[in-house]
Amino acid sequence: MRENGEKEISISAFILRVSRKLRDFFYLSGPAEGKAEPSPMKTTWYCPLDLSTVVEEEEDGVIYTVVVKQQHGGTTGPSSAVTRSQCVKAGTEEKLVLHLLHSFSMGDSSFITIFLSTYRSFTSTERVLDILTDRLEKPPGDSDRSQRRQSFNKAVCTVFRTWLTEYPEDFRSLKEPTRLLRLAPLLPQDSSSAADLRARLLRIAEELSEKALLPDAHRDQSGFTSAPPPPDASKFEPTSVLGFPAPLIAEQLTRIETELFVRLVPYHCLGSLWSQRDKKGREGVCWSVRATVRQFNKLAKAVLASCLCPTKLRSQQRARLLEKWISVAEECRARKNFSSLYAIVSALQSNPIHRLRRTWQETDREAIRRYEELSDIFSEKDNYSQSRELLKEEGTSKFANTDIRLNNRHVNKSSALGTVPYLGIFLTDLTMLDTAVKDRLDNGYINFDKRRREFEVLAQIRLLQSSCKNCVFSTDESFSQWYHSVPTLTEEESYRLSNEIEAPGEPSPRGLTPTVIITQCPDLSRSRTSLPGDSDSLFEFSSPVNNLLSKLTKVILL
């Protein structure tokens, strides 16, 4: 009992000492040191209180989410300020378009950016131009110099300057110049900014006129060169890849992927557009995503062809090819080129290579360990959490968070600072979002909150693109010639070559299950047939995952 009493006294004394120190530290009034009876202390804490009230208000054709904030005054006095912002939640097509001209004044500062990124999901460029032009013909205000007219003119210039800068292809894709010729004279007359916009619109209108007169000279709107002729299989030397250093191969692949990623149009990834790409009359939709898919397929097939075409190699020799591609994948990881990394890993996980028991047995154990670590990056666990975490950590960093040896090599030999993601993650998110969230409310209003959520994904793509824009690469002609000479193997050819190397029926020693990022799309329930050279299918070869997919409905692959 005494021992417990002593502990209680000791604790009480400690608390008393701490309270006195805290009192002195915060300059609180109290008894003089040494007095037995402390006098009562009064402590005043200042905490700025931010009170927000969120309500919904519906006006004619539009629903706003209204946020009213009351910021109470600080130490200088009891004064307070009240701010009010209105963000569009849903509305009719016309009201959403007209909100472009009023969004800043209403505190909806992100609306213009979000609208221009996503409007193709619910309307067209022609329709937006028509609504805005109609409004410009009846501007507000009593005179050109009224405050209301000046604010309106400023908003008009902001909208069209942003639109022309970020999405000039919207205007160049118009079928004829009539709308631009109608719009240009209606722009404000009293500012140099408006004059510049007018000149840009008239130049595009002139281009459209020329295109109407000379259509053959303007066929390629995407900016990508036409597809090269099919490679000559007789000139393909599969084992030549062993003569290229892994860092050089990774550098060249990163060059190709970076060029494609920088030119990617983010809104092409929207679920409502990408999921409709196979419909008749939409063959040219999402061309920038298709280009990325084609490169992914080409690299996967290059890995397949180099490992399978030399059927007479001994298992030890073929194992060196697997080790080479594992090293290339590791170098791609160091360069934050996740697209090429996943293409290589996916090819190595495909059935024609996955089943080569003797080849994998001859492969270096350390190389296999590194390969399995790289494969884990694209694990489906927790919705691909590792891939997402890496993009979050390294998206805008200068170097990858990897082995010091690889990073040093990366510093010395590569000028690439950007991150090239595996686009399938974003396509999955946007397709699932498009499927799960309604386009319209029950009253028929367009659900703009859905577009805000889509923009959060598109903004991630744009941020990663910005990290790639200053990358500088040189082209290695020797590797380019080899890469473009790789033949396109069909699924049947891949299996035939694999069976020539090792007879069927022997169990595979590899326990690693291939992973392919997919998302189910109920809107596209028709079955899909993969044809040789199909640019939108991820693989023309089978894997355990593809066998599973054949039992499902239509899926989106990338």
User: What is the first-to-last residue Cα distance?
Assistant: 73 Å
**How do the SSEs run, as a string of H and E?**
HEEEHHHHHHHHHHHHHHHHHHEHHHEHE
The radius of gyration over CA amounts to 31 Å
Described by the principal axes of the CA atoms, the overall outline is elongated
Number of helices: 23
Main beta-sheet annotation = 4 strands, antiparallel
Q: Roughly what percent helix?
A: 40-55%
Class derived from helix and strand content? alpha+beta
Mean pLDDT: 80
Structural features, described:
The chain is an alpha+beta fold. It is 50% helix and 7% strand. The chain has 23 helices and six strands. The strands form two sheets. It has a four-stranded antiparallel beta sheet with strand order 1-2-3-4. Strands 5-6 form a two-stranded antiparallel ribbon. Helix 12 (315-334) packs across helix 16 (365-376). It is elongated, with a radius of gyration of 31 Å. The N and C termini lie far apart (73 Å). The model is unreliable at 1-9, 25-36, 38-47, 410-414, 511-535 and 537-558 (pLDDT under 50). Residues 245-504 form the Ras-GEF domain. Pfam families: RasGEF, RasGEF_N.
Summarize the structure.
This protein has 558 residues and is an alpha+beta fold.
Protein topology:
Elements: H1 2-25, E1 50-59, E2 62-72, E3 80-91, H2 93-98, H3 111-118, H4 125-136, H5 147-166, H6 168-172, H7 178-183, H8 192-213, H9 246-262, H10 271-274, H11 287-308, H12 315-334, H13 338-349, H14 351-354, H15 357-361, H16 365-376, H17 385-394, H18 404-413, H19 424-436, E4 446-447, H20 448-468, H21 477-484, H22 491-501, E5 518-520, H23 544-549, E6 555-557
Antiparallel strand pairs: 1-2, 2-3, 3-4, 5-6
Helix pairs in contact: 3-20, 5-8, 9-11, 9-12, 11-12, 11-13, 12-13, 12-16, 19-20
